Amino acid sequence: MKVAVYEGQRAIRLQERPALKAAPGEVIVKIKYCGICGTDVHAYLHEGLLPTGLVLGHENVGTVAEVGKGVEGWKAGDRVAAGPPGPCGECYYCRHGRSTLCIHGFERTNGLSQGNDGGMAEYLRVKDPKGMLLKLPDEVSFEDAVLIDTLGVAFRGIRQSRFRMGDNVVVVGAGAIGLSVVQFLKIAGARHITVLNRSAGKRKLALQLGADLALNPVEEGGGLQEKIMALYNGVGADIVFECAGNAEAARTSVSLVKAGGQVLLLGVSGDPIPVPEAEFVIKEVELKATLAYDKEEMRLIVDYLAQGRVNTQGMITGIISLDDIVEKGFERLAASSEPVKIVVAP
Description:
The chain has 346 residues and is of the alpha/beta class.
């Protein structure tokens, strides 16, 4: 079978490997689509984030191809989504109901850890089908289902935040996660949603998906904070969702939230946040982060998709072949902020 192997900074090589066979307790999934996540792009651009020799891809959907001995509840042909990482059920965090913080979570995740190849391949080995596979109803297309990971991160972020119906909200970043946040905020009853993004195309899409206002922070310049303050009762946003994953976005988020408000970090950056401690103290701003999603949240996302309550139109920028994964996938995402989500069809 054909796979895309990560070999280090800006190095992904196509390779032929033997076909996968299901060992006892495992399920083999024939991949229909695998989304390229921001984590994958960061690993592509920076040495050492993920192990070399790994097949990337943790946003996976497809059909069951083979069921190993002892596995119950699955059969060949079942339409499935693969993820989130199955919790071990035994560590401190799992025992205290915090499965997304499972100590062994990353090492059990396809596409993120050695020995657990991901879905940028024709087939995927799932070692924990009970914890990691979810059956897809006929009402949910594979094109929608490949966005479950993105939608799940946004959904959990809102649930973990202090958001309440009637809040005024700023969403910094209109990538796949930011656009998902906008939709769930609308469903949950936000009074007003302002989205910040440099891309005109993404701002337009944000408005189509439920934002009330979309601004270019570069064009607004030093007047951005004043505009947000004036818009929201002279004090600022009740809560700001940082979805861009860079230090400047985090700095902007803190400047736009009201005193006593909350900044929820959904973006991921390795850079320090350039915010003076005094700014947090004087405004009593709460800074909170959230990670991934759990199995129950994954089920809820599937329900939302099946009911047609989430609009995915425009969120997939392109579907590419495995042969084009570097030029039309990783390099395109590295060179431009215009694409929302690029999906690989092995």
